[in-house]
Amino acid sequence: MADAKPFKPALIIVDFQEDFCPPNGSLAVPNGRSVAPVVNHLLTLPFSLKLAPRDWHPPNHTSFAANHGDSPPFTSSTTVIHPSDPSRSYTTTLWPVHCVQGTPGAQLVPELDVARVHAVIDKGMDPRVEMYSAFYDPFHVSDSGIAERLRAEGVTDVFVVGLATDFCVKATAEHALEEGFRSYIVEEGTKPVLLDQWPECRKNILAKGIKMISAEGDEITRVKSLS
Ligand SMILES: [Zn+2]
Asked: Which end of the chain has the least Cβ crowding within 10 Å, N or C?
């Protein structure tokens, strides 16, 4: 059946990097590496644009607990202040040192079929702000250019996979929606890092209007049918 609505899908594979994967990742997502077969299968489908953003932090990044004295990772936080407007701020979780530019932990996992990716895009390079989303940080002082890239390609629908569901995948899917794209997370292609909080987080994602879909679902069948 022909569908009147335009459909030009993009695939965004978020932060599929060594530091987010067992066995050696400093911020390993449980079973993170196991999503590789699903991600690689999606990469064979005729998405108009296939992007792989990666966390690419300088050593002095504000999200590292080690840069905040004795603050323990995961359970402590820091206040990020807007670089040019001190009246604006947000609180963000502190993490173990991860994905430092050029280190082995920052490399995309070798399982990823990167030859099928159109572009690898670095994010999180401004040491002053946290940047979970592959689009931009909460203050929009650091912008990866992904939104412009999607629009230039005429993309209508954005499918997000990668690590971790509850942080960078979620933030990327939220910004995709806010930028006017239909936004989906393919559940078999992603894993959350904070398992105890995941059921609540999943509800919040759905409440925003992001669809959590299966790699076997109708939306993916529709992508396949484009070929
Ligand atoms: Zn990071």
From this structure: N
For residue 196, give every residue at least 6 positions away whose Cβ sits within 8 Å of its Cβ, in sequence order, or none.
Answer: none
Average pLDDT over residues 75-102: 96
pLDDT at 120: 98
Annotation marks residue 55 as catalytic: no
End-to-end CA distance of the chain: 15
Give the domain range for residue 136.
Answer: 9-56+106-224
In a domain, 120, yes or no: yes
Is residue 5 very low, low, confident or very high in pLDDT (cuts 50, 70, 90)?
Answer: confident
Which residue in the list 50, 55, 99, 123 is annotated as catalytic?
A: 123
* CA of residue 32 to ligand 1 center, whole Å: 15
Any catalytic annotation for residue 208?
A: no
Please return the burial class of 164, using the count of CB atoms within 10 Å of its CB with bins 0-12, 13-18 and 19+.
buried
Distance in Å, CA 124 to ligand 1 centroid: 6
Query: pLDDT digit string (tens) for 134-180?
Result: 999 999 999 999 999 999 999 999 999 999 999 999 999 999 999 99
What's the gap in Å between 14 CA and the centre of ligand 1?
A: 11
Residue 88 has pLDDT above 70, yes or no: yes
Annotation marks residue 99 as catalytic: no
Ligand 1 centroid to 212 CA: how many Å?
A: 23
219: domain CATH number? 3.40.50.850
